[in-house]
Amino acid sequence: MRYFIPKEYSHRVYNLSKRGLKMKLKSRAVVSTLGLLALFILVAVNSSSLFFMHEGIDKLSRANLTLNLYKSGSSDSDSDSRHALFSDGGSDSLSTKERKKNISDLLVQKDEIVERLLEFLSNINDSGFDFDGYMSYTYSDLVQELSAGRLTKARTLRLSPTGRRDKLTNFDLFHGGIRQFALYNPNSPYVEGLLEDMHTQPIVSMDTMEKGTQLKMGVVFSNGARAVFKPMRWPRDRETDPNHFYFNDYERHNAEIAAFYLDRLLGFYSVPPVAGRFVNMTSEIMWLSTKKLQKTFYTSPVNNLCFFGECTYYCDSRHSFCGNGDIIEGSFMAFLPPDKFALRQRWKSPWRRSYSKLRKAEWEVDDNYCQEVRKTTPYNNGKMLLDIIDMHIFDFLTGNMDRHHLEIFKDFGNYSFLIHLDNGRGFGKISHDERSILAPLQQCCLIRESTFLKLLKFYTGPEKLGQLLRNSLERDVLRPLLADGHYTALDRRVTVILKTVYLCLEKTDKYNNVIIKDKF
Ligand SMILES: Nc1ncnc2c1ncn2[C@@H]1O[C@H](COP(=O)(O)OP(=O)(O)OP(=O)(O)O)[C@@H](O)[C@H]1O
Ligand SMILES: [Mn+2]
């Protein structure tokens, strides 16, 4: 396998030492003196709310957001020179009232509590939040602006370069492009290229993966790329059995694919690229696998080829994977770099479920659970807790209750992003919203501002999350990937999240206590 660090990325490094942050701030100051000017205003307004954040990070974040999200208030600087995401729209011929009315006409389903949230936001003049400017943005523009912090030229993994650059595959480029705050850059052509490769490249090796509890296979393609293959277990319109506990639920190949697109749509960039593919069970699985695995193949009474493979759970003839003839669908998730190049660290999530029918987890019985978590390393660094909350919001949207571990690249340290592997237990229920997945948001009453603004945009429209995801999923060969009801469920769940945020705001009555401005 070949690795390299793309040249254009290797010269700027996020250094978490104070000196590093100061240097970063300094370079920003050169780019925009206005940023600093507005920073001071913001610092004065918000100094009390971000008490738990690392001081340096705090400054950096505010500088960034001042540039993008806020009106300059009493600042006398020239607004055209700013990258103002939310311009004040002064030249617009419509009055504020008219614009608000036009926008609210676009709302399909209003929710009384979220309406109150909007009212609250339109009235918080003192923090300089430009509500009208925000409302005039489309989701696509918004996500570009708000997720930019994740894609800045943070450092990549230290993978040693071998091989010539023109010979590098999309898979190599994906590994070379993994950064401290995002797994990939959605604007880089290698992402689409890798999806295409996983869909078209001949499969040359297929082996059972030892890791995890349910069957999954390690695949090697002819160009050297590797992927985790999860075959289709059941039809995509079949919902989770309500009598099953979350830990008895099967994995769904389509959920893995949909989760990748949802994560990308939300601007998190934490799920490795996943592509769907039809696989020939005879030539692409059986002939390539071990004798042991081959022994689990059989022909079903209706002449479909089936196998059950080897794994800790559900690998017996009552839980088989059966093809249509000998063709089966499956998801292919790009492999992360192997441990010897980039070690990952995995530990139990504080909001892990008990995985027992009888026992409750600590977070389920202790209302002050978050206050304790916030004091502990690494959740006190100002980023990881917000990442966990983002992750649970993501899991709540898909309905995945199976987030038992947190995982990062060791090389990036505690101030890095969480990798979202294992999304196969999402999209199992259409009409049920599992609110307990939102526990970290509910208990900590914190949400990253960018996440909040993105979700709110789905509520105000005109673009809705369900429709946007439906459009994205059209690209995959296994379309349609989700039963129709899942798209409506997503829109409904956005509202549930926003209501949760409003209830937090109501408790503290202060925007900055709940909605945290950091650079992500
Ligand atoms: N894309 C990937 N690249 C590298 N390793 C991976 C990838 N996907 C999964 N793995 C490895 O396999 C392990 C198990 O994967 P996954 O969590 O999807 O399976 P699982 O059967 O649901 O596991 P569990 O029972 O622990 O929930 C992961 O923790 C990770 O170490
Ligand atoms: Mn799992």
Automatic annotation (TrEMBL):
Tell me its cofactors.
Mn(2+)
Can you tell me which residues bind Mn(2+)? 251, 422
**What GO CC terms are in its UniProt record?**
Golgi apparatus
Q: Which domain of life is it from?
A: Eukaryota
List residues of the FAM20 C-terminal domain: 297-510
Residues that, per the record, bind ATP: 214, 230, 251, 407, 422
Recorded family membership: Belongs to the FAM20 family.
Keyword Disulfide bond among record annotations: yes
Q: Name one GO molecular function term.
A: metal ion binding
**Active site at which residues?**
402
Q: What is this protein called?
A: FAM20 C-terminal domain-containing protein
Keyword set, alphabetical order:
ATP-binding, Disulfide bond, Glycoprotein, Golgi apparatus, Manganese, Metal-binding, Nucleotide-binding
Under the heading InterPro entries, the entry gives: FAM20, FAM20_C
Supply the Pfam families for this chain.
Fam20C
Q: What is the lineage of its organism?
A: Eukaryota, Metazoa, Spiralia, Lophotrochozoa, Mollusca
Compartments annotated for it: namely: Golgi apparatus
